[in-house]
Write a structure and sequence with these properties.
Elements: E1 3-4, E2 7-8, H1 15-18, H2 27-37, H3 50-60, H4 66-82, H5 86-93, H6 107-110
Antiparallel strand pairs: 1-2
Helix pairs in contact: 2-3, 4-5
């Protein structure tokens, strides 16, 4: 089992797909990394040799991935919250940041629906 950046890559997947298990690597960057490391992207991860894994590691070192990228993203969010820009305010309130509607959806950001108590109607 290949281990890159402290992430176990899934053995049964192609190299191009398996690299996406690393935070910060998507499909297009995975293809670029495979080309730079001279590794066939359709090869399974379990079929990789030690030299190929080493070349993949060396190629991935050129990019910000995993811990460094997570730290950068969190610092950017904290910075926005400190300067009280619009996105920072939305982060503080736990609302959608990128202009989505909140009247109907946004349950992922807003959390579980809150029940509003109704006044009982007085019947005559």
């Amino acid at each position: 089992m290949a281990r890159i950046k402290n992430i176990e890559l899934p053995n049964e997947k192609h190299v191009c797909i398996g690299l996406t298990a690393i935070y910060g690597i998507g499909r297009s960057l995975a293809k670029t990394i495979c080309e730079g490391a001279n590794v066939n992207p359709t090869k399974k991860i379990k079929e990789l040799t030690d030299n190929e894994i080493a070349s993949l590691r060396k190629e991935i070192e050129k990019y910000d991935v995993e811990g460094d990228l997570r730290r950068d993203v969190q610092m950017s969010i904290k910075n926005k919250m400190e300067i009280n820009c619009y996105q920072g305010i939305r982060h503080k309130k736990g609302l959608p940041v990128r202009g989505q509607r909140t009247s109907r959806n946004a349950r992922t950001r807003k959390g579980k629906g809150k029940v509003v108590a109704n006044k009982k109607k007085v019947g005559k």
